[in-house]
Each structure stands twice: as structure tokens, then as C-alpha cells.
## 1
Amino acid sequence: MKKILVLHGPNLNLLGEREPGIYGSLSLKGINNLLEEEAAQLDVTLTCEQSNSEGELIDALHRAQIGQNGVVFNPAGYTHTSVALRDAIAAIQIPVVEVHLSNIHSRESFRHTSLTAGACAGMLCGFGWKSYLYGLHAIVELLEERIV
Ligand code: DQA
């Protein structure tokens, strides 16, 4: 059975109470529960982690190489600032799909650039919590080589 890591970046622990008009009313736990349900349907094993720290996210990506087949990653604010996270994504041998709840291209100009997306297999944004859902489907299809 394929193993997928869902990795959430900084401030996403506050989902549900944090700017709900932009990020929705579901908590992080609520999103993880919905993803667990979908994972069961897709016959994959899910591990969900969140960190507010750049170094811990880098360590989580390095660890994912041992035992995980792919990663669905929301780097949150580090998307726009972190060369180190981009390098970590590029360094590991498993595919990473970047996801964002909001459409980063329709927001402030500093959010229009993702430093991390270029090292990822692909990026989804703007579909609320369903960006994660579609990201999960994308990584599974990628691993099953159903995406060329
Ligand atoms: C985010 C978008 C980022 O610009 C922001 O810093 C976040 C969340 C999203 O999921 O929409 O923290 O990654």
C-alpha cells in the first residue's frame, strides 16, 4: 500500500479561526479527517504533520524519503520566502505536490511567486480544503503512473 505524507506549514494549525473568509471554516483536524476518509477509498496510508518551523519542515521532508512514497505539501508563508525548503524538495527522491487553500495568484503581489513550486511535480491552489483533496488524487495518480 502506498504511503503519503500530508505536510502543513506555518499558521495552518490555526485553520478554522484564522482569516476564515480566505482559508475557510474547517480546522486542520477537520481537513485531516476528510483526507483520511479519502485515503481509505484510494487505498493509501496517510500521515499528517504540521510545523511552524522551517527547519522542522525540512527535517520532515528528509524523513519522508524513508517510508513515504510521496508528499502533499502546503508550505504556507514559506512558499514565498524559503530557498531552503525548495532545496529540500529538490533533494528528496520522492514526488511532492504543492497545495494552497487560497488562490495565491489573486492575492497580494508578494504571494504570486512560489519559490517551492518549481521543485514540485505540480501545484494546486484556490480550491479551499479541496486543494488538498485534489493534491492527494494527483500524487496517487502520479505514483501509479497515470499522469505522464
Ligand atoms: C497559503 C497561502 C500563503 O500565501 C499563506 O502565507 C498561507 C496559506 C494557502 O494555503 O492559501 O499561510 O499557503
## 2
Amino acid sequence: MDHTLSAIKRIENRAKQIPGVISLAQGIPSLPSHHLIRNEVIDAMLNNKVDKYSPPAGLLEMRTFISQKLAEKNMEYSHEHEIIVTAGGIEALSATMLALLKHGDEVIILTPAYPNYERIILMAGGKPIMVPLSEKGGWILDLSLLKKRISRRTKAIILCSPNNPTGSVLSEKQLRTIGILAQRHKFLVICDDIYEHFYFGDNAPFNLCTQNQFKKQIIRIVSFSKDFSLSGWRIGFIHADNEHISKILSIHDNLINCAPVISQYAGLAALKNEKVILNEYMEIYRKRRKIMGDCLESLSEYVQFTWPNGAYYFFPKIIGATDVEGLCFDILEKAKVAVVPGDDFGAGGKGHIRLCFGKSEEEIIEGMKRLEQYFLYNKFTEV
Ligand code: PMP
């Protein structure tokens, strides 16, 4: 197993040592936690509600509210047996893999993908099976290729739609086919819905988890880190059929006992004020996406890209570059902008860089200006 940190974190660590760097690297939203959330958390603190452990699955009040919110989306999950409040998405993913994988079980990842998927599967003794998406036409899943990678050892597939790093969204047809394949071949569909609310079309994308016939197959992971700008609070939740949740709960208990209670109150406040907060925040991200996308269009001599339909990343291909990790470190040293090499997201990401528009408008404008200067004056010949 690889014990080095992912390139995203290595780039961020180096960036912190360079004065005046603008980071468009790690997906950390610039927005502060909302005052509606802070006020409720302060209230919980002042009323001595946050000092003690909660039940391992989370505060009853939180799980009950989550269950009600899920029902509004046609997802029927019992607060008693089918929901666990977690320390963010990454703990939910880790607890899931540790609970459900046996040594050598295969888990399919569509690449490019969030680097921690592979790392977590390996940590849990599983075997990652990569299925590359086709960049042509906007990161399309070739279902025949997926079918070829399904074997008797396939335990799960991880889906992240809207996607990190590509910003692409899987179609209803693709998702339904995956659901049917999962039923037929008896594997799980782990839906990492961390970017659920980041979509830039008029309507929310189709979500397989709303289709109750697939409930036994689905494990859904939700996080408050990105959409509610609570990445430092480490809070999220997981829901699935009782059979899976009971196993995941025992691992979650061994790992962290319960999610930080103060953060559970933050998550609860976020859900209670979901509409107001998300309307406000998503409007801001739409604007940031446009600013970054327009800047990239003006760099068409150097980059090729498609506009993301969701999440908050652009994933342009750098024309003519082969050593993109070297290039990213060179950009960092010379232009003082941190961006992530696409190789970090698996073979499908080769030749690309990832830029996050979770950052403030000023940072995006200045960062893109520096990038333009870099391309103009360095010609990014191999570094
Ligand atoms: N899944 C994806 C696709 C992510 O991009 C991230 C964070 N960048 C996570 C899970 C984990 O996030 P957190 O633990 O903060 O919820």
C-alpha cells in the first residue's frame, strides 16, 4: 500500500510554505460556515448539549431529521437502523469498506476518480478495478467495458456523480443500467453524493438512490463539507439497508465512537436551513464557474476542456504536456498558483490539471491571471 500523501495534499503542503500563493488545488470551499448554522451551534454549546458522546449512530434528533429529509426525496430509511452520522464522507467510506470487504474482494472505480477511493479499498484489503471513462463527449461511461470488468469477486462499484475531478454527471440510463447489473451480479453501489447539490443545469440530475427497487444494493454517502462549507467540522452521514448499516456501525464505533457532537449540531442546523443556505451558496458557485470557465476559454491555445455540469472543478487537458506533476510543481514555484496534477486521479487523468472554483472570486481571477502569464512566458516546455 502507498503510504505517501496524495499529490493534492503534497501540493497544498508545499503551497503553504510559499508566501503569496493562490491555491486552486484542494477542494476546500472558501465560504465561511453560515450564520444560521453558527447561531444554532452556539446555542447548543451554551445549553451544554455538546460535551458528551452521542449514541454511535448519532444524535437521535439528527437521525430523525435526516430520515424525514430523505423521505422528501423518496428515500425511505429508518432513523433507528439505517442511518449513521459520520465524521465526513471519508470516514463513511472507510468504515464502509472496512466493514464490507473481505480480502481480495473487487471494487470498481470509474476513473478519473477521487484518489482516496483506491487507497481506502487497499487499506481494507480489497482490490480496486479501474474502468476508465471516455473523455471524448464529456467523460462517458462505456457500459460494455464496465460489464467486462464485473467478476465473481466484484463486491461493489463506487459512483460519484456529479464527479470529482471531471465535473461530469452520469445519465439516468447509465445509472439504471448499473443498478440492474448490481442486482443481477449481487454487488453494491456505493453512491458518493458529496457534490449532490452542485449542478449547473436547470434540473437536479437523476439520482439512483431515489429508486427504492435498488435499496438493497445501495449505500449512500453524504457530506456537509462542500455544499454547506463545513469541511473543517468533519460531518456527514451514511444511509443504507439495515443489513449493511449494522456492520458499518460496529466499525464506525471502533474508529471514532461517534461523530463530534458539536458538528452534529452544525449538520442538523444545515439541514434545517438547507434551502436558504444552498440557494445563497450555489448562486455564488455559478458565478465562480463562469469566471473560471471564461478565463480557460481565453487560454484555448494551451488547454482543452469541457464545462463541468456539476461539482466545483474544471479538469482541462494541457496541450502537449506529458509530465503534468512536474508541471504543477513548476507552476507553483514560478507562478505561485497551486493546481492538482490529473495523474493523481488515476490513469484517465493523465495530461490534465484540476482547478477548483470553490475559492473566492478574487482568488480565482488572480490565480487564472498568474496561470495565463505562466503559459505565455514559460511555454510549459517539459520541466
Ligand atoms: N468524496 C469525494 C469525491 C471528495 O471529493 C471528498 C473530498 N474532497 C470526499 C469524498 C471526502 O470529503 P469529506 O470527508 O470532507 O466529507
## 3
Amino acid sequence: MSKTIQAVRGMNDCLPSETNIWQMVESVLRRVASNYGFAEIRMPIVESTALFKRSIGEVTDIVEKEMYTFDDRNGDSLTLRPEGTACCVRAGNQHGLLYNQEQRLWYMGPMFRHERPQKGRYRQFHQFGLEAFGIATPDIDAEVISLTYRLWKELGIDEFVTLELNSLGSNEERAAYRDALVTFLSEKEDLLDDDSKRRMHTNPLRVLDSKNPDVQKALEGAPKLADYFGEESTKHFEGVCQRLDAAGIKYVLNDKLVRGLDYYNRTVFEWTTDSLGAQGTICAGGRYDGLVEQLGGKATPGFGFALGIERLVLMLTSLDKVQNVRPQVDAYVISLGEGVDIKATALAEQWRDEVPQTRIQTHCGGGNMKKQIKRADKSGAQVALILGEDELVNQQVTVKYLRGQQEQQQMAFDKVPALLKSLL
Ligand code: ATP
Ligand code: MG
């Protein structure tokens, strides 16, 4: 016997038992984004490798070791997108959407990173991301963060998440700070782990968010980025905080929050949770005023975030927040007796015409009452509509309620649409 082929490690199927919760989450994401005036954009999954090297940064984890990069048949270097912001900026530049305009865009779809698969960390995963272009003032930062907070409220998980907030200042301020930090770290080099020693030279700010407690200890007394801020960066950050305060959105200031992508400046934020174990960040983003220009466009400020849909689904499941997900079917049509199924097919089509929103499944494949009722029950339907020879003669169906205690009843064909509507 030949061996069955398995999915690629870290790349998951989403089975029918899970797709209804995914669809519920996706519909909340779409609706809230649209309620704040954001429009959908769809980008390709494959882009030129240069796009990510230039935007995310050559010495970030993503570009150094996580990208799926290959040469296509023409010898061009292509990469399966590891994130969406760079793709969105590329598309905006290419189609003239950004310069001198405001754009509020969102996207959703698969991303690819060659990481060690574990709970909440996969090699193909899905992000919902949102980007606002053309607005340099802190109001949009607060608006986008408020939108994320509304997502958690709508999904019923707002009590289980924490907003962490920081400012990275401008590029110049960060460069001055970087020098001071490297001087400080050089004096503590013996206390750093190998990763941090390497980062000290390539990307020293990343040392700040090392998960290693020894490194964190070595960082005591390190210079603070905020001490290098000019008036504008300070005011911008205060502007964000004031607006979040006014909206009643709580946050924790975390001066070690630096993000793993190079393009951020000023405001950065993450939403974290304790309910997922080690993979505690569900959503992350910030301001990237230099990115559009860096990718060849005219200077345009930007602010955005991405959230991991797998981590949201895991969270909703582990917190038992999925009970409001509708089952697949509302009504199940059963037919018994010679040729009755032919009439059942026609009736089901008629009812679908009359009540298009109701999900009606007809039994196919024959079988006795017991078998058909079993299927009806398994479908999740609220009612079985039973047609037998007697029913056909009387122009009636037998309605059997599959959930709850309600008595079975006979109902004329023309009353059925009203019943189907009541199931919605
Ligand atoms: P982490 O610190 O967990 O590696 P990150 O900083 O690399 O996250 P971002 O690039 O900011 O993550 O992506 C935004 C969100 O996408 C994350 O907060 C997370 O919810 C999700 N995400 C990132 N990488 C993965 C992955 N490999 N598998 C599943 N979800 C992911
Ligand atoms: Mg990562």
C-alpha cells in the first residue's frame, strides 16, 4: 500500500468543524473595519524578495531566517509573503493610491514564515491587517487602536487582553539612542547571551525585548529612548495617550516594546494575553512614516497593525466564547416512501426561493426514518421537515423539532416559509 501524503509541517487544514468559528471571526473583522471607513485591498501571495528585504530589514529575524524564498523558472527571486504591510505599500505605490491622499485599507489572508511550529505559531498562518495612509497626526493612531479594542469587545475577549504601548521616536532620535545603547551594552557584553551579542551589532534595540531573564537583568540602568525624544515626538505620544484616556481604553506603557520589523517609528503597540501560553501577542502594529518613501513612493505617513487569526480562534475556543456560532443547517428535509423524494426536492427548491437566507438541506441517499432523523440531528438543524405519502396527499409536512421540547406538528405546505423565516 502506498503511503498517504501529509500536509507540509506547520501548514494546517481548517476543517469543517472549525470553519464556522473562522467565518464568525472574519465577519466581525470585516464589519468593524468597514464601520470605521476602511476598504478591502487584496494583494498577491508571492512578491519580489527585494520588497521584504528593503522594508522589513535585512537583519531582522523574518528576513534572516524565516522567509520562504525561491527562484522561479525565470531565475527571479520570489518570496511567499511573510506579512502584509510591505505588500500593501507596494500596491499603493504601484497604483498611485498613496501620494497626497488619505487611504484606509484592510486585508486578510495567509502569510508564511519558516518558524518552529508550536501552539499559536505556524508556517502558514493568517493575518488580518489594516493600514491608514496620509495622516501624520496622533488622532489616527488612537482611532486605529480604538478599532482594535472594539474587535475584542465584539468578540467578547476584551477582559482577557492588555494593550502595551511605546514610542520609538524619530529615526534621528533612535540613531542617537542606538549609539548610547551600544556603548552601554558593550560594557555588559559578558552578561549577554549569544543572540543579544549578535543583535548588539546588527539591531541593538531588539536586545531590549529579549525574553532571557539574564539579559533583562543586564539591562538594568540602560539608557532610555524617551530621554532622546525631541518636542515633536513627545507631543505626538502624549496626543495618542490623551485620546486613549478620553476613550476609556486602558494601556500599559512598556519602554522595552520595540517590534521585530525595522520600519516602525513613533507609536508602537501590541495586544497581549495570558490565555495562550508563550504565544501571547495577538495583535501588533504602529506608525511607519518612512516606509512608503523607502519603497520608492513619495513620502507618506502610515499607521497600521496585523493580528493573527489562529491565535484569536485559539483564544475564543479556550475561553469558551464560541457558543454563538450558528450550526451549518437550519432545516433538514426528510422523505419516506416511493417517489416522495422527487416532490421533496421540488418543495425544497420552492422554499429556498421564498426564504433565501434559511439554510435548508435535503436528505439524499435514501434510508429509513431512523437513519434520516439521525442525519438531521447531526446536521445541527433546528427542525426536520418530514414528507411521507400521507403528507403528500394532505399537502402537509410533519415538523419535528430537533432541539428543545416542542411537540411535533402537522403544517400545510404554504405555512412552511413562515416557519423557515422564524428559524433565522
Ligand atoms: P511573535 O513575537 O509572536 O513572533 P511577531 O512580532 O513576529 O510575533 P508580527 O510580525 O507583528 O508578529 O505579526 C502580527 C501578528 O501575527 C502576531 O501578533 C501574531 O498574532 C501573528 N503571528 C505572527 N507570526 C505568527 C506565526 N508564525 N503563526 C501564527 N501567528 C503568527
Ligand atoms: Mg515572530
## 4
Amino acid sequence: MSERVIPLVDQRMAPLAVPRPARAAAHATPAPGLLHDTLGRPLRDLRISVTDRCNFRCTYCMPKEVFDKDYPYLRHGDLLRFEEIARLAGVFVAQGVRKIRLTGGEPLLRKDIELLVGQLAALRTPEGEPLDLTLTTNGSLLGRKAAALRAAGLQRVTVSLDGLDDAVFRRMNDVDFPVADVLRGIDAAREAGLGPVKVNMVVKRGTNEHEILPMARHFKGSDIVLRFIEYMDVGATNRWRMDEVLPSAEVMQMIHREMPLVPLEPAAPGETAERWAYADGSGEVGFISSVTQAFCRDCNRARLSTEGQLYLCLFASRGYDLRELVRGGASDADIAAALAAIWQGRDDRYSELRASLPPDAGNDRGRRVEMSYIGG
Ligand code: SAM
Ligand code: SF4
Ligand code: SF4
């Protein structure tokens, strides 16, 4: 029954050419931290996907009928090695990145991921500060891994959880994974000191909106920040439909009626979530409204795919092949110069444009890169 999509292997054949400024001399290396794109947005946040594989098959991300046993996942040799990731990350940090999030696929499936965490935790900003280092996970392996991740230098985790009802959760992850194990993983993360833990719930109308209030009640009064994410038209395989998006404004009203909320100021510029506190002082919730309230204007995020392609937007179709630079013997100064040229040419703002696009015409949806490959 599957409408097969253009497999990723096609995209991998067509990365964008990396601009090659004349071989960078030390004095030509862009001054650290001054990169802005064509819309004046700085480069601050780097999301690194460490695997395109996952042990879940969330229907909105890796639908089973597409991501089956024949799916052309990347081969091990195509993945960036930890040393390559850490080296690239170092160049990004010198150019302004202050926050790194590891993601995937399921990042905890990558063997020895704590070794990479250790290498990234050792990086310092030009001012000598450590990075804000975090990881997004489905939580299934956190119970086993939380302590080692913390010991390696990870600061925080975000756990994805789409409901508390076991039957709903098992249906959404589509591999019959029990909710209790994810809740145990969240506890393990808190106990290991990976807090404040954030929990991300993707809300899909007709699928899990009845889980919104139970989730809010469950995490209210704890030190866990629950964030509601609008179901997005990312990738090309989830058969996204606008009528399955439940706007954050409705989710907020639903919670506010039972548990009054008051707005909070954003903690950092470019923050994706709009923050609200419970009026009775028992914690906060966030809303990530990428469909109904585009936040491209402040988008300071770059994404490094599992095989080392740099994507400038979650909705891009093609990335820039940094792995080729790294494996081709480029110096750090060469990579920094290429990164500067790429970022300074960036004009992506898909979510802002979405509303004016005809359905399915947006950014060549048939070829759009998958969330499991580029990372959320
Ligand atoms: N496997 C890890 C996880 O689930 O947390 C990390 C990767 S996952 C791609 C990152 C985040 O993207 C998750 O919070 C997931 O819920 C979210 N996500 C995936 N597909 C989405 C979609 N179509 N709309 C909104 N969020 C989505
Ligand atoms: Fe896997 Fe995360 Fe995608 Fe679910 S959202 S299929 S857990 S990568
Ligand atoms: Fe950033 Fe692209 Fe999302 Fe806009 S659509 S916020 S540019 S990732």
C-alpha cells in the first residue's frame, strides 16, 4: 500500500557544492562568532544527527511501510566518525555555535555515543566557556545510558513522549513499546543529573489530543518541562495533512481552562518554544508552533546530517557535503571559510512561506529530507 518515496540514496547523490573560497590563509579565517545570514540571523545552535536508524516507527516520522527492512539506511562507513564530528563541531563553535544537540534517528542506538559526548563536552567557546550540550531521545535506552552520558559531560536531555496511555503510546511508536519504560528512562535521567529534563509531545489531531490534559496533569508540579509540538510537514513520507495539526493556541486554551497559565519571557533569543508558567507556581509548559506561528525570523539553527551534510533548514531538500571536505584533507581554516560562505548565503524561511504555498508544493516536498536523517 505504500506510496514509495524517492529514497534518501537519491538525495545523497546530489549534495550542494560546498563553496570553496580561495584556500584559506590563517588571516582569511572569518573572525569567530560574527557569522550572520542574509536575514541577519546568527549561527548559534548546531543539531547533529548521529544515526538515521531508530528502534521506534513513530507514524509521523518513520512510518513502517516506508522504513521497512529494505529501507536503504546509511552504511557504517558513510557515517561521520566521532573524531570527524568533534572536529567539525569545533569549527562551528569557533564560528559562533554555543549549543549542540545530539539527535537522530535514535541517538542512543549509536554505539559508544558517550565517547562522542565526552569529545564534545571538552570543546570550549572562544571565551573559554563549555557548550550547552544536550540530546533528544525517545527514552527507550535512557535507563541503561543516563549515568554514563552524564559522566561523559552531557548536561541535559529532551525525551519525546506522545501520551501516557499505554495503548495510545504503543500505537504511536508502532513497535509496541510500553510507556512505563520511557517513564523509567525519564526518572533515570533526573536521578543522573541530566535536568531540567524536557518532554516533547507531538500532538496529532485525531490521534493523541485526549492525552494532552493527562500529560499536563502528570508533569505539573514536577521539575520536568512539558512541551507540545505541532505536527509538522517535515519529510516526505508521513502523509502530513493540515487537518491533523492541532494548533498550539487550542492546546494552550485546553490546559488554561483547567490549569491557568501566565506567559513567560523567552529564556534565549531564537528559542523554539513559547513558554508559559502555571499561575499557581507549579512549573511551566512550552508550545512549539512551527506550523501556525512560524519562528524563522530568529532561526539560528544549523543541522549536520548523519553522513556530514550541512542543512540550513529542517525543510531543505539538499545539504552541503562537509564530509567530503573533512575526508579530502581540508584544514580547519578551509572548513571555517566554507561554513562562513554557506551561512552568509542562507535565506531559508520555509515555515514563514508555508502558508502562501499551494499544498504539497512547498520546497519540492517529494524530495524533502527526512527528520530521522537530519535530526529534529
Ligand atoms: N528519536 C529521538 C526522539 O524521538 O526524540 C530523536 C530524533 S526525533 C526525529 C526528534 C524530535 O522530532 C522528536 O521529539 C519527535 O517527536 C519530533 N518529530 C518527528 N517527526 C515530527 C513531525 N512530523 N512533526 C513534529 N515533530 C516531529
Ligand atoms: Fe524514532 Fe524519534 Fe522518529 Fe520516533 S520521532 S521514529 S523515536 S526518530
Ligand atoms: Fe528554521 Fe527552517 Fe524551521 Fe524556519 S522552517 S524555523 S528556517 S528550520
